[in-house]
Amino acid sequence: MAKRTQADEAGRPEDERLGIGKSFTYGIQHVLTMYGGIIAPPLIIGGAAGVPPAEIGLLVASCLFIGGLATILQSYGVPFFGSRLPLVQGTSFAGVATMTAIVADGGLPAVFGAVIVSTLLGLLITPVFSRLVKYFPPVVTGTVITVIGLSLMPVAAQWAMGNDTKAADFGSVSDIGLAALTLTIVLMLSKVAVPAISRLSILLSIVVGTVLAALLGKADFSAVGDGAIFAIPTPFAFGAPTFDVAAIVSMFIVVLVTLTETTADILAVGEIVGTRVGKRRIGDGLRADMASSAIAPVFNGFTQSAFAQNVGLVAITGVRSRFVVTAGGVILLVLGMLPVLGRVVATIPYPVLGGAGLVLFGTVAASGIKTLSKVDYDGNMNLVVVAASLGLGMVPIAAPDFYHHFPAWVGTIFHSGISAAALMAVVLNLVFNHLKPGKAGTDPSVFATATRVIDYSDLKAFSQLENGDKIVDGQIVDADGKPVPVRDADGRPVHYRIGSEPDGH
């Protein structure tokens, strides 16, 4: 691998230094954006393991601690590890269901052992993934980015409703109203002409929303003083890891999904930042992902991956500096050692997070749509690539139990709309745009010409001709010089020549 030089990094937007004050201010915004997501997996897994509340608190602190280390490694980077992009790392949701199943049989030590071995295997295969960048053109990345945003919408909706489905007031008008108020504050602050305020619109709206929630009796700060103020996660606090082959195999499938999602996130943030992302940076990013995941169980943590909601924060704020994210990693590290600060952040009501999340996650989807607008859909199968991939990606969102009766490995891969859409988009792009068996596509599928087809039955009345159409060598071409297909009422091609009748189908 060639040595990275200073000239290679000069002028990259992600290398902008904003100063310590601004970096930590924007870094707090990143932490607040992903805090709910990073603490949810340890709460779920710890609850499934039946550990007492104090030990669940230890799991939460451990995940914050290792998330900080992983974020610093990913954003700041060391040789061969770290994409050096503004990517926030944290405990991945992709493996929660699998780890919950493992913990039921072997407890937390079996989960930690499976994570260690599977992520070390993932580390070994990262060179393969880093060479797949040519199979991620805009038609693939745009589709995946769009699905990332759309797949996060149920999370924002659940937060807006209070998050606890068993609570008596889940989905109450007051909770949804608080979320709507927070959303309104985000939009109003984004309109302010002062750049510092508009860029901090998410953070400020969360602060204002929390204050308003406290006035309405919806924020409880009473538990902030409970528990230890300072605590460093103890290595292997839940016992030495155990190694079960079945658990390792199931977690390795999760690792493949995580690698796919992280590749998509690296490409997504590269597109948003406006910087070049090649196979080398992808490889470095994936190695950081897997290395931090392998170390995580030592400090009682789980698999790490990039957080898609923070990709949205980069898009909406326009703050592209990776050092801002590094500052966020330092904050996470401190939160992991100071549980009292974590308890302060934990007082933010979920409806407040939900209101801000609607904008964040919607921005991710909008970024994907913007990327898809750059795709050429004429004379190829890109339209069906997007259509099928979006459709498959939306299935687990529209019907969460869709794969309930399938083998566990099927659910692990396809229950994530992001990984399902990514796999479908990559495969279809490979089949339609890279593999070209047989005769070249002079008469492609109807999907390839869905943007414009002339119906021969109306042609003689000139009802379907447009400005710029002309006749070249007896054939109709548009203003860009591209042939315009002519088809009969049954959709079959008509080889039309001016001055003659159709010469066949």
Automatic annotation (TrEMBL):
Per the UniProt record, the source organism is: Amycolatopsis coloradensis
Q: Which PANTHER family match?
A: PURINE PERMEASE C1399.01C-RELATED, URIC ACID TRANSPORTER UACT
Q: Could you tell me the superkingdom of the organism this chain comes from?
A: Bacteria
State the protein's name: Uracil permease
Question: Which family does the record assign?
Answer: Belongs to the nucleobase:cation symporter-2 (NCS2) (TC 2.A.40) family.
Q: Which Pfam families match?
A: Xan_ur_permease
Q: Which UniProt keywords apply?
A: Cell membrane, Membrane, Transmembrane, Transmembrane helix, Transport
GO molecular function terms listed in the Swiss-Prot or TrEMBL record: xanthine transmembrane transporter activity
Q: Output the lineage of the source organism.
A: Bacteria, Bacillati, Actinomycetota, Actinomycetes, Pseudonocardiales
Q: Which GO terms describe its cellular component?
A: plasma membrane
Would the keyword Glycoprotein be found if you checked this record's keyword annotation?
A: no
Q: How does it sit in the membrane?
A: Multi-pass membrane protein
* Subcellular location, principal: membrane
**Where is it localised?**
Cell membrane
- InterPro entries found in the cross-reference section: NCS2 (IPR006043), UacT-like (IPR017588), Xan_ur_permease (IPR006042)
Indicate the transmembrane segments per the record.
Answer: 32-50, 56-73, 85-104, 110-129, 136-161, 167-189, 196-216, 236-259, 323-342, 348-369, 381-400, 406-432
